[in-house]
Amino acid sequence: MTDATAELSGPLVVALAVAGLLLSPPWRYLPSPWPVVAAVGTFAVFAAPIVLSGQATFAGYIKLDDTATYFAMTDRTMEHARNLAGLAPSTYEATLSTTLALGYPTGALMPLGIGYQLLAYDIAWLYQPYLAFMAALLGLTLYALLEPLVGSRRLRAVFAIVAAQTAVLYGYVLWGGVKEVAGAWLLALVAALAAWTLGTRGRGAVLPLAAACAALACVQSLPGSVWLAPLFVGVVVLVARSRARPLVEQAVAFAVATVVLSIPAFVAYNQWRHHLSGFRSSDELGNLIGPLSGFQVFGIWPSGDFRVKPDHLALTYLLIAVVIAAALAGAWWAWRRSAWGPLVHVGLAGIGALLIVGLSSPWIGGKALAIASPAFVALALAGCAAFLSGGRVVEASIASVAAVAIALGVLWSNVLQYHEVWLAPRGQLHELEVIGKRFAGVAPALMTTYEPYGVRHFLRNSDPEGASELRRRFVYLRNGKTLEKGGSADIDRFRLDQVLVYRMLVLRRGPAASRPPSPYSLAWSGRYYEVWVRPVHSSRQIVEHLSLGDSTQAAGVPRCSDVLRLAEEAKGGSLLYAVAPVAVPVTTPPLSGTLAVDTTVPTGGTYTAWLAGDWYGNATVWVDGHKVGSKREELNWPGLYTDLGTIDLAPGSHRVKIRVDTGGWHPGSGGSSYSFGPLTLSPLDTHRDEVDSVPPADARSLCGRRLDWIEAVR
After folding, report:
1. What are phi and psi of 283, to 5 degrees?
2. Going by DSSP bridges, is the β-strand pair 464-466/445-447 parallel, antiparallel, or unpaired?
3. pLDDT-based confidence at 275, cuts 50/70/90?
4. Contact at 8 Å (CB) between 440 and 506?
5. What average pLDDT does range 570-580 have in this prediction?
6. Can you name the residues that pair with 543 across neighbouring β-strands?
7. Mean pLDDT value across the chain
8. pLDDT above 90: percentage of residues in the chain
9. 411-421, pLDDT tens digit by residue?
10. At what angle do helices 207-220 and 263-272 cross, to 10 degrees?
11. Which residues contact 648 (CB under 8 A, 6 or more apart)?
């Protein structure tokens, strides 16, 4: 809540954890292995797309960039709470001004920040394990809720794993939905603790329930506490009917503890309440294509993207009907056995989802369906268990078929989503992480390609701005316009005065990438990015910067009249110029399969193979039968290239082959490319940083030459 205490939160949590272990050692009461199976099994399901990719990364890249904002908020909150004092104007600062400073809820992000404090490992690589961990807590809580209804511990663990991975919740997690999975877990926890608290004496017994309720308020914001409305109404009714002194004391203790522990939510709401109107608009879809179907709350939706209807709609609705029928049986079974936990869970989930879907935007309504969905699937599986334990062969057989159908429906839905997951490109983002640490304090910085994770998180210590991102300065192109969100442009397309504002340029490499203006020197280069830095003060004045080339070539041939005009402007100074190699377009590759073409390179030397766009299979390039390189599932915004490798070539014709292997069990292998190709070869630029000069009197020597740019300098 305050800048003065923010950095103490991590040490405080560690101290409390140690105290908890000492005061109540968990190893005294060795649990059954089946709760562990439920937790670990759920974790494995949610971690699978990342673990099986072989890279420490996260899901939902490009689909939704809110995760970049969550990173920015976590970075700041753990050190300075909501205080933005001292931040220079930048995309990072603007992002926090439109979220953190306005009271955006941060409860779901704090354990992630503490994880960073403990491990000193960037939160980008902790994020997906954190989401999987909260899903594991959901699985563990569902196991506890199912205990009075499912006698077999083994079956209970399996049911908990299935119920925790409902299709819409799994889909949101593969988007980076931290508040959705946290909300689903906390709602289940509130239900489990509500039932436990009723059977426990003493005012202190209400503290776990109060803590869970307050956590839900801090995660979902104070208006999001509507999930708890049925619980609070139930408490009031119970106290009014009973009026027993111990119960009244418990209720008062519960109310006081919940309010005190929810103070951060109340404080944030004081600002956040002024910005809630957009969340009630029926037109606010966010990244949805349209409002989600209410039937998705029943956990089955076999579509690779939960935003679109399944191909097998009739079968989908049949499976949903099985879930509904089994859930009704589960409610009857829970009532008969006085198992209040599952009933409270489905009551909170059902009423809360109805209220939120009815009163808020489709964007918020979709999140509510995800949070509520585990309650219905868990109750449905409990209904199946009721007839499995009845002893009648026919009923047990029907219940077995229903349970298997529900489980297969959920797994079918999630296998499709697993195949279409969008994984963040670890290599690209890791380079930005390295740059952010190595050049911290070199500010301000500019990125001319759209990369929210760079300017909102990795480069935050360099006051970064993205030319097509939320920013404080307008970064104008030479045509007087600015880039639209998501757009990218070569550095030579920007006005010189706009570029020189920034001391550091973080630029994407590519076959047509221009050298920045002469004051900048190459400070670092990787596979994806280059870092260019200029001195704080320059001893020369650039009168004019003449950009040459186009979107496919960094260099072009200037008109001699332009060269002579620059010479006039540079009297008493000099003409500076940069050269760039010629890029050789090869072909537009197939979305799947093999294509071979003959390509002529004008000069001999080492060539880099560049592949533009995004692809989900494994792309491999050969030249004259020699493998240049390969890359699996590389996501890029349109127009950006990936370096696949280098090869030495003699001048003349060469046979270039590209093969794209799609399908298989690799995560994301079923995705569809948005923009794929072209394949391009370019000579290795060994003089990338060099700038040459001629006196104005020798300006004609530049006429007819292919150049990157020319500057008139005094």
Report:
1. -95, -5
2. parallel
3. confident
4. no
5. 93
6. none
7. 93
8. 84
9. 999 999 999 99
10. 20
11. 604, 605, 606, 607
Which amino acid would we find at residue 395? E
- Angle at CA of residue 195, ends 193 and 197, nearest 5°: 65
Residues contacting 336, CB < 8 A, separation 6+: none
Contact 693, 555 (CB under 8 A): no
How far apart, in whole angstroms, are the C-alpha atoms of residue 301 and residue 170?
A: 11
CA–CA gap between residue 239 and residue 492 (Å, rounded): 72
Task: Give, in order, the Cα–Cα distances in Å from 558 to each of 491, 548, 561, 585, 707.
Answer: 18, 7, 8, 22, 8
> DSSP of 451-505, one letter per residue?
-HHIIIIITGGG-EEETTSS-SS---BTTS--PPTT----GGGB-HHHHTT-SEE
C-alpha span between 644 and 256 (Å, rounded)? 61
Q: Residue 477 in contact with residue 483, Cβ under 8 Å? A: yes
Give the tokens for residue 706: 């292919």
The rounded distance, in Å, linking the Cα atoms of 528 and 386 is 57
**397: which residues sit within 8 A by CB, 6+ positions away?**
none
> Please, are residues 106 and 149 in contact by the beta-carbon 8 Å criterion?
no
Distance between first and last Cα of the chain:
53
In contact, 133 and 42? CB cutoff 8 Å:
no
* Lowest mean pLDDT segment, chosen from 26-35, 537-546, 677-686: 26-35
Distance in angstroms (rounded) separating the CA atoms of residues 271 and 292: 29
**Residue 663 in tokens:** 């399908």
Q: What pLDDT digit, counting tens, does each position of 10-48 carry? A: 999 999 999 999 998 877 777 789 999 999 999 999 999
In Å, what is the CA distance from 434 to each residue of 61, 73, 226, 431? 19, 20, 43, 5
Token representation of residue 128: 């997906």
| Cα 5–chain centre separation | 28
- Residue by residue, DSSP assigns 646-698 as EEEE-SEEEEEEEEEE--SSSTTTT---SSEEEEEEEE--TTTT--EEE-GGG
CB 499 within 8 A of CB 445: no
Provide the pLDDT confidence category of residue 278 given band limits of 50, 70 and 90: low
Residues 6+ apart with CB under 8 A from 170: 45, 46, 413, 414, 417
For residues 596 and 585, give the distance between their C-alpha atoms in angstroms, rounded to a whole number.
14
**Residue 44 near residue 418 (C-beta atoms within 8 A):** no
If pLDDT is split at 50, 70 and 90, which confidence band does 101 have?
Answer: very high
H helical segments located in 281-422: 313-336, 340-359, 362-388, 393-419
The tokens describing 372, both together, are 């509520």
Q: Which candidate, 361, 373, 428, 432, places its Cα nearest to that of 406? A: 373
User: d(Cα 69, Cα 457) in Å, to the nearest integer?
Assistant: 8
Paired tokens of 425: 């490109």
Q: Which residues pair with 621 in a beta bridge?
A: 629, 658
**Pair of tokens at residue 28:** 């005294």
**CB crowding 136-164: b at 16 or more within 10 Å, else e:** bbbbbbbbbbbbbbbeebebbbbbbbbbb
CB atoms within 10 A of CB 287: 13
**Lookup: tokens for 626:** 């020699």
Determine whether 411 is exposed, middle or buried from the number of CB atoms within 10 Å of its CB (0-12, 13-18, 19+): middle
Q: Got the DSSP string for 227-282?
A: GGHHHHHHHHHHHHHH--HHHHHHHHHHHHHHHHHTHHHHHHHHHHGGG-GGGG-T
Give the C-alpha separation, 595 to 619, whole Å.
11
Structure tokens belonging to residue 348 = 């909170």
Residues 535 and 303: their CA atoms lie apart, in Å, by: 53
